[in-house]
Prior knowledge:
The protein is 41% helix and 19% strand. The protein is built from 20 helices and 13 strands. The strands form 2 sheets. Strands 9-8-10-11-7-12-13 form a 7-stranded mixed beta sheet, sandwiched between helices.
Amino acid sequence: MVVMGNDIKLFASLCISQGILNEESCQELGKNLTANTELLDFAQSILDHGLHDNFEEIQELLYQSEQRAAWGELAEFDPFCLETTPESTAPELKLSQSLTELTINTDGIAPAWLDPLQLEGISKEEARQAVIALLMAAAKYGASDLHISSNSRIFVRHHRAVVYKSEGVVSPEVARALNLAALSDEQITTFDAERDYDFAMPFSSGLRFRVNLMQQKDGISGTYRIVPTHAPSLEELGFKNAATIKDLLAFHNGLILVTGPVGSGKTTTLSALINILNQTREDHIITIEEPIEVIQQSKQCQITQRSVGHHTQTFKSALKGALRQDPDIIVIGEMRDLETIEMAVSASETGHLVIGTMHTSDASTTLNCLLDVFPPEQQPQIRSMVAESLRGVLCQRLLPTKNGGVALANELLLQNLAVSTLIREGKSQGLSNIMETGRQAGMVQMDYSVMELWETGRISDEIALLNLQNDMLRKQIRNRGSMKSSQQPAQ
Length: 491
């Protein structure tokens, strides 16, 4: 019997789990392969035999299997041999013996946090196992991010708060070993040259992590963002105006912006919007991300996902290529430079629905940042284009709640004649008045969303005051706080 390489087994297993192959077709392909067959040859055979025609999806699964093979993950079963196929293909993450006592609690419920002082001198394989243990611990803890940074304690971001998870600090040597454990030799060479590196880390259990590595004065720092295993609904995310937001997705052209500060859940909201489109329309969706986070399986729509750095060089080049791929909808993970914004606005005017994200806090700031990136002589033309193409701006924040969680506050600007006129004339400071009068049409101001969270008792006075701009609303909170204080019985 021919022994297939582990990378081919991982890739074939992914194809089976995604419905690209079934076990019988996989075995049939295996009959034509030899011990010298390369992974790319096997992938090409799927296309050649007409078993699947989505090259981008095959490419993404190739990327995932290469990453897992580089991590040392072994295929859980042989997809070319039916009798060895288990009922479940979920991976069992095994730790090396020297780290077992450090990484698993005796009750077996959840992984424990590692003591960096006990990781000095670990091998590359042990470093891989240690990072896996830390990632699993962070996921079970409910963190959004895990940080492994040189000369710092291990910490996570939990409900927007920094929580330290080790007593000892991570030495520069251990930080390098842990953070580079996931990379191939070629990737390490790239990181050493550029001092920055972004990639996605998938596990066959469905967990995915978005990783950023950087060189800083003390050594290497790694940030591991935990990606949701599925695309949640807008209602699950906390959007009480979900019906109005869904109405925006009925447009067949125009520009929709999803904005908010770093860590406010923009990527998760974006995946929710794509999922809605995928279930309600029959279009070709191209997403451009850095890197791909939530894997979107084609349902009613054909979805093509591209990762900047792996499938394309830049957002600009990906967007330029996307316009030649007959898309109906283009999703841009981040609009941050003149060329990308200009092409996005142009695409929204030429029959495409464009959805993009920006790091801005409210609708007025979003429009200013979108338009001010252009040189003065070009701004009148761009203002006219945006005035016609803009469909809506959805801004969001995650605020800490009284019970230790987070609550979503959001602002929604919808296009109407008054909004278009203000944009064209460059008078975005008047948007608040238009949004106030547009509440019946579904517009929402951030201040009123924050006030609703405060009035229902979900957030404290202090958090509400920090996130309100309206002086009258701030005064209302202070007055009610003063009344509560005066009603307190004397001690």
